[in-house]
Amino acid sequence: MTQPRAVVIGGGIGGLTAAAALHRHGWSVTVLERSAALEPVGAGIALAPNAQRALDVIEAGDDVRAMSAWQAGGGLRLPGGRWLSHTTSDAAAERFGGPVVIAHRAALVDLLLSRLPAGSVRTGAAGEITDPGAPDRPARVTVTAAEAGPGARSGAGGSTGPDAASAATDAVAPPAGGAYPATLDAELVVAADGIHSAARSTLFPATPAPRYAGFTAWRFVAPEPEQPFEPHETWGRGLVWGTVPLHDGRVYVFATAAVPAGGRAADDERAELLRRFGGWHHPVPALLAAVRPGTSCATTCTRPRPRCPRTTGAGWPSSATPPTP
Q1: Nearest by Cα to 289 from 300, 305, 302, 273
Q2: Cα–Cα dist 273/255, whole Å
Q3: CB 122 within 8 A of CB 184
């Protein structure tokens, strides 16, 4: 029996997860990623128990749970430091069926790449659906060079084990002879190319364009401050700040502010964060002190369709998905 073929357009977390699941079920999978390389960048991402159960399908759930750094208390606070609510990791796990794991995006990408066969991820390659296919013929994807051309992952930014780096590097391979095939035929095409998905627009041209969700997010990873703290989300008037430890000793920070569409900081984003959050409780000032002056870390958050309750966006080099409102 001929092995079914799948092309995944987009090498982010969603695309790599879909590719790993298809590979486990016997599909020949090719992932097209337009970036020149899968660099070890990104901030944090929260993986709830249901997300971990999805990763269990590709036998990655236990490795993700091993990344959990939240082992004690945490909760909701006010800018002055007063606790509005408090819980523990055990109580949260009992209520929701497991712990919430805050992982570095690069570590999760490495883990997913380790579940893919060698050479299955093609970087510097943009995919365009030129024929959606039909019951009597496969779909066709045209492959063109993007960014600075193909490249391989140069290292594992958050490897989960001694073999993760080599496995991730094997999955991402430059093309033989310096060029990828111009077209790929497949029984399945997965559109995983982000909120501004060109593949989605091709298949569903009437899909509404993203719209501004009413707030902007900032995300970064900082060294752990000297003075200890409990994980928290802090609510101000139109403002949110979150501080969560990562398993490698660093701290993931996210912040949001309700601002008009198109607004930018008058000087730089670090100065804007200091204006909005610099007087909040520990460890907020210490973490802001670790941000390099001139760093651009704001992300305009958009909704992919009307009434969508989630938000996403693309931002500075260490960006990640915005926090759940």
Answers
A1: 273
A2: 9
A3: no
- Whose CA is closest to 241, among 271, 218, 213? 218
Tell the residue number behind the tokens 């082992």, with chain if given: 71
C-alpha to C-alpha distance for 170 and 174, rounded to whole angstroms: 10
Alpha carbon 136 to its chain centroid, in Å, reads 36
Q: What is the pTM for the complete model shown?
A: 0.80
276: closest CA among 262, 265, 286?
265
Q: Where are the alpha helices (DSSP H) in the chain?
A: 13-24, 49-56, 61-65, 89-96, 105-113, 164-171, 198-203, 269-277, 284-289
- HSE, side-chain direction, 13 A CA sphere, residue 118: 3
Q: Which residues are paired to 104 by β-bridges?
A: 44
| Token reading at 43 | 């901030």
* pLDDT above 70 as % of the chain: 80
Separation CA 198–CA 190 (nearest Å)? 12
Task: Find out whether 297 and 316 touch, Cβ atoms under 8 Å.
Answer: yes
Separation CA 285–CA 199 (nearest Å)? 43
Average pLDDT of the chain is 82
**Tokens in use for 5?**
């073929």
**Could you please report the per-residue DSSP string of 212-243?**
EEEEEEEEEEEPPPSS----EEEEETTEEEEE
Distance between CA atoms of residues 301 and 283, nearest Å:
25
pLDDT per residue as tens digits for the range 260-307: 887 777 778 888 999 999 999 999 999 999 887 766 566 667 655 433
pLDDT at residue 310 tops 60: no
What is the rounded radius of gyration, in angstroms, for the C-alpha atoms of the chain?
A: 21
Cα–Cα distance measured from residue 22 to residue 27, given in angstroms and rounded to the nearest whole number: 5
Q: Please state which of the ranges 36-45, 125-134, 280-289 shows the lowest mean pLDDT.
A: 36-45
Report the amino acid identity of residue 288: L
Residue appearing with tokens 């915005």:
322
